[in-house]
Amino acid sequence: ALDCGITGEDWTQEFGSDVVRVAKLVYAKKRLVPVKWVLAVPGNSKIRKAQDLKGKRIATELVNVTRRYLRRKKVKADVEFSWGATEAKLATGLVDAIVELTETGATLLAHNLRVVDTVCSSVTQLIANKKSWQDSWKRKRIEALNLLLAGAVEAEQKVGLKMNLRQCDLKKVVAILPAMKKPTVSNLSQRGWLALETVIDEKVARSLIPRLKKAGAEGIIEYSLNKVIH
């Protein structure tokens, strides 16, 4: 048996996995957000809510979760397993609805599908074998792995900035920076000049750098990060 692994929360729910959920790692293919399994139908379908699925056929990879969803909605429908190309089954009329994974909804729109409801949300998670988690030696290493993975996810949305500036401009520059903490400042060999380094959200770098330049910063370098450990 494996000691630990990375999988979606959706799949531990699907198989009823008896594991330790060490941590959630919120990331997906395109964005650092949870993904959704949605109930979708053709754009011209008369199905508007879950109750309209009574007696209908639904295709999905997430069979057990979908069946539990229908039980909560008190709807009896036929749920069949589909491995890939699930959207095509709607186009050919093989099924009436699908439950499909989506992050942005772009693929569903491209197939002219309409979302009726969200069946469940899911995030990536680090899981551990219960016996391995009880072993102190293995647990320490799983926790260390979790620390590094969380740091890598955090770094995805951060960048580092380095710059030089005159000492007289320090207050102006620091006032602009939305730093995680106070920036690192050190003296340069040239008297009256400083080097400043900090970490910021990548999304603000584009608008921030021109303001830093205007405030007196020079030699500004933006660089990507591998890990950010809090």
From TrEMBL:
Q: What's a Pfam family in this record?
A: HisG_C
GO CC annotation terms, alphabetical: cytoplasm
Which terms does the UniProt entry file under GO BP?
L-histidine biosynthetic process
Tell me where in this chain the ATP phosphoribosyltransferase catalytic domain is found. Answer: 2-146
Pathway listed for it is:
Amino-acid biosynthesis; L-histidine biosynthesis; L-histidine from 5-phospho-alpha-D-ribose 1-diphosphate: step 1/9
Instruction: Report the top EC class in one word.
Output: transferase
Q: Which cofactor does it need?
A: Mg(2+)
Q: What is its EC number?
A: 2.4.2.17
Entry keyword set: Amino-acid biosynthesis, ATP-binding, Cytoplasm, Glycosyltransferase, Histidine biosynthesis, Magnesium, Metal-binding, Nucleotide-binding, Transferase
Q: What are the residue boundaries of the Histidine biosynthesis HisG C-terminal domain, all occurrences included?
A: 155-227
Cellular localization per UniProt? Cytoplasm
* Catalytic activities: 1-(5-phospho-beta-D-ribosyl)-ATP + diphosphate = 5-phospho-alpha-D-ribose 1-diphosphate + ATP
Q: Does the keyword Membrane apply?
A: no
Q: Which GO terms describe its molecular function?
A: ATP binding; ATP phosphoribosyltransferase activity; magnesium ion binding
Q: What does this protein do?
A: Catalyzes the condensation of ATP and 5-phosphoribose 1-diphosphate to form N'-(5'-phosphoribosyl)-ATP (PR-ATP). Has a crucial role in the pathway because the rate of histidine biosynthesis seems to be controlled primarily by regulation of HisG enzymatic activity.
Report the sequence similarity comment from the record: Belongs to the ATP phosphoribosyltransferase family. Long subfamily.
Report what the protein is called.
ATP phosphoribosyltransferase
Protein species of origin:
marine sediment metagenome
Q: Taxonomic lineage of this organism?
A: unclassified sequences, metagenomes, ecological metagenomes
